[in-house]
């Protein structure tokens, strides 16, 4: 079993073309990131989000950002191109890496 001390120097970058507010990332990705963060791995989350959020999405994003910050997880949002998905997601990911 890993303890926090085992991972004190480890960092990870989680890049997701799936928006952080999506049900998929909310149900699977973010809980795993939080669990690993509790074990001492420092995470940076980079998600590709749609160009504009409505008021409800803005509020949900602020809530998520706060809950991630409490776990010492940095979240960076990149505004994604909408179509076509594959080439533009690839471009967005490379843009985020620079």
Explain this structure.
By secondary structure, the chain is of the alpha/beta class. The chain has helices at 23-38, 55-70, 85-97; strands spanning 11-16, 42-49, 74-79. Strands 1-2-3 form a three-stranded parallel β-sheet, sandwiched between helices. Helix 2 links the parallel strand 2 (42-49) and strand 3. The longest helix has 16 residues, at 23-38.
- Count of DSSP-assigned helices: 3
Strand order in space, largest sheet: 1-2-3
The counted number of beta strands is 3
Task: Write the element-wise H/E pattern from the N-terminal end onward.
Answer: EHEHEH
- Structural shape: globular
Termini Cα gap: 36 Å
Q: What can be said about the biggest beta sheet?
A: 3 strands, parallel
Beta-strand percentage range: 15-25%
Helix amount: 40-55%
Report the uncertain regions.
Answer: none
Radius of gyration (Å): 14 Å
> Roughly what is the average pLDDT, rounded to an integer?
83
Structural class: alpha/beta
Keywords, separated by commas or semicolons:
46% helix; 98 residues; three-stranded parallel beta sheet; alpha/beta; 3 strands
What is the fold's blueprint, element by element?
Blueprint lengths: L10 E6 L6 H16 L3 E8 L5 H16 L3 E6 L5 H13 L1
Parallel strand pairs: 1-2, 2-3
């Amino acid at each position: 079993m890993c303890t926090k001390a085992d991972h004190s120097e480890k960092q990870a970058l989680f890049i997701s073309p799936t928006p952080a507010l999506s049900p998929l990332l909310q149900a699977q990705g973010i809980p795993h990131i939080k669990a690993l963060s509790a074990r001492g791995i420092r995470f940076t989350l980079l998600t590709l989000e749609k160009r504009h959020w409505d008021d409800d999405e803005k509020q949900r994003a602020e809530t998520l950002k706060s809950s991630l910050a409490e776990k010492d997880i940095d979240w960076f949002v990149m505004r994604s191109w909408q179509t076509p998905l594959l080439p533009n997601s690839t471009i967005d990911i490379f843009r985020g890496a620079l």
